[in-house]
Design brief:
The radius of gyration is 24 Å and the shape is elongated. The protein is α+β, with helices and mostly antiparallel strands. About 30% of the residues lie in helices and about 30% in strands. The protein folds into 2 domains: about 130 residues, no CATH class; about 120 residues, Cathepsin D, subunit A, domain 1 (Beta Barrel). Strands 6-7-12-8-11-10 form a 6-stranded mixed beta barrel. A 3-stranded antiparallel β-sheet has the order 2-1-3, with no helix packed on it. Strands 4-14-13 form a 3-stranded antiparallel β-sheet.
């Protein structure tokens, strides 16, 4: 769900419900090229290349052949609050998708990463390293995959020594809300104990926007969208405390500027 129209959309929707009594918001999501789910509230917000795989989370109510009696104020208020709770649940689910709990040790951030090879997977803890050009797994960490590796040249380690490295072609890696398909990763033979299972490098990190929340021990992916969802959640929480008259008045006040903009010039 996008920031630009979140509050207007939510309260305008509530006004429509109060008037009609039987409509529902239509929320859609699609998966972008980085494997991330994107939520929108209008088909026009979906890029053309993704419209063939869009999913509609709530269908509109079917049209009734016989008119129903207009609901009373209490029924309208209950319908609005029910709709608000549904919308809040959707926003909370979208926020949760953009949060990934991580381990933070001093300034080191350990990120959960799932490597997938065929029908097998390995769950690893990778050190977030903006100085690493590529993602590197320790061989023992991905041993459960039983995947084929191949020679990929040499690399220089911190001691200055050059060592042989191998690579593996993974079906995908899963990091937070992202599903990166057909991923090539490096594989190192690691000896001794380590607090992590490899390095999460810039081949992934340069593709995404993220913020590390050190206080709460998590990564926030796509901070702009996360902030937009938080703003919408705050508006919905405020709306939940209003009575019917206040909801209708606020929604009308927000709807009027849109109608003026949309109306053609005489």
């Amino acid at each position: 769900m996008r920031a630009t129209s979140a509050g207007v959309w939510a309260l305008t929707l509530l006004l429509g419900l109060a008037a009609a009594g039987n409509g529902y918001a239509q929320i859609y999501h699609y998966v972008d090229e980085r494997g991330r789910k994107v939520y929108v509230d209008s088909l026009s917000q979906i890029p053309a290349q993704y419209r063939d795989q869009v999913e509609q989370l709530r269908e509109p109510a079917p049209q009734r052949t016989m008119p129903l009696p207009a609901p009373g104020p209490e029924q309208q208020l209950q319908a609005l609050r029910t709709e608000l709770e549904r919308m809040l649940a959707q926003v909370d689910a979208a926020l949760k998708e953009l949060q990934t709990p991580v381990e933070i040790r001093d300034n080191r951030v350990l990120v959960p990463v799932r490597a997938v090879y065929g029908n097998r997977h390995a769950d690893t803890r990778m050190l977030l390293d903006t100085g690493a050009s590529g993602t590197v797994f320790h061989r023992d960490a991905i041993a459960p995959l039983r995947g084929a590796t191949y020679a990929a040249g040499q690399a220089r380690v911190a001691s200055g020594e050059r060592i042989e490295v191998h690579a593996i072609n993974l079906d995908r890696i899963e990091i937070g809300p992202y599903r990166i398909k057909a991923t090539r990763a490096m594989v190192l033979d690691h000896s001794g104990r380590s607090e992590h299972d490899g390095l999460l490098g810039m081949d992934f990190l340069r593709q995404v926007q993220y913020r590390i929340d050190y206080d709460n021990g998590m990564i926030i992916w796509d901070p702009a969208q996360y902030q937009a969802l938080q703003t919408q959640r705050e508006e919905l929480l405020r709306a939940r405390e209003m009575d019917l008259g206040a909801l209708q008045e606020q929604a009308r006040g927000r709807q009027a500027p849109q109608e003026r903009v949309a109306s053609p010039a005489p």
